[in-house]
Amino acid sequence: MGAYILRRLLLIIPTLLGIMIINFALTQFVPGGPVEQVLAEMRGEGDVFESISGGSGDVEVQLEAASAESDYIGARGLPPEFIADLERQFGLDKPPLERFLSMMWNYMQFDFGESYFRSQGVLELVWDKLPVSITLGLWATLISYMISIPLGIRKAVRDGSSFDTWTSAIIIVAYAIPGFLFAIMLLVLFAGGSYWQIFPLRGLTSSNFDELSDLGKVGDYLWHITLPVLASLISSFATLTLLTKNSFLDEIRKQYVVTAKAKGLTESRVLYGHVFRNAMLIVIAGFPGLFLSVFFGGSVIIETLFSLDGLGRMGFQAALQRDYPVIFGTLFFFGLIGLLINIVSDLMYVFVDPRIDFEKRES
């Protein structure tokens, strides 16, 4: 197993390098950049996308305006020396290859640079925003498992019953509803939108959080995360429940279960003594991957809707502003986490079922 883990760790290097090369190359062809963003704000346009897309739908007019950009800037009192100085400050005066190699060399030394527009280091920004995203990802994943596994087992045992039918209907509806739409519905119903003001509209804590007792802080924290976590777990809950049910059904129909029942073992003993371990292999081993999907997948929309200052929202804002150090730094950081969690997922398979040997499978 040690040789397999070593190979997987070594594969992280070319994989991560490939991810960074592809994304760095794509940014070279995307319209706009940090310099254009600054110029757009100085002209009072607010956002670089407004200057790129324009107010009219005439493509030829937009292209003509883009080609005359330098003349327009000069007419508004922004000399070419000023533009060149901006490019130098952002490090865009160097060739792309040189910039990429310099960036990767700095990343190897865990130097992720400083944000163009926030005056903070990338690692400091990630560290500040990380608790919010971890809160959403971890709570949503844990609650999904706590509900989905017992429900999936119950549905497998009572397959075809009325309980299985109406719970399947609920699960299908939950799977079909997009997370952002469910989040909006929760806000409208329970956060003072049009009905009840039960939960707060934004943030993870109240303004007087520091003045509360320890028990009060826990209650305030749980009060604030209830709606965001519910919005985050809806799709994963549906998927995990069906996965658990199908996994148990597949095992229940196997010959060893029939043999165990023929020996006189009770249904509970057969289910939890024999079936459970085999059926839960794929479910438990998928925990890291599910956490990663909740952590990265739905965090942007959920954090934006509930005004949570997390990694997803920060990454979205960085993409809009073309804040390259934040974009590439977080991409490198998250890519590394994702690759490591994939290795953890494989180790979970071995932990749940020691009979699995990845080294023999590869040979």
UniProtKB/TrEMBL annotation:
Q: Name one GO biological process term.
A: microcin transport
Origin: domain of life: Bacteria
Q: Which keywords belong to this entry?
A: Cell inner membrane, Cell membrane, Membrane, Transmembrane, Transmembrane helix, Transport
**Transmembrane region(s):** 9-30, 132-153, 165-191, 221-244, 279-306, 326-352
Q: Which CDD domains match?
A: TM_PBP2
Membrane topology field: Multi-pass membrane protein
Principal localization reads: membrane
Instruction: Offer one Pfam family short name for this entry.
Output: BPD_transp_1
Localization, per the record, is: Cell inner membrane; Cell membrane
Show the GO cellular component annotation of the record.
Answer: plasma membrane
Task: Report the sequence similarity comment from the record.
Answer: Belongs to the binding-protein-dependent transport system permease family.
Identification of the protein by name: Oligopeptide transport system permease protein OppB
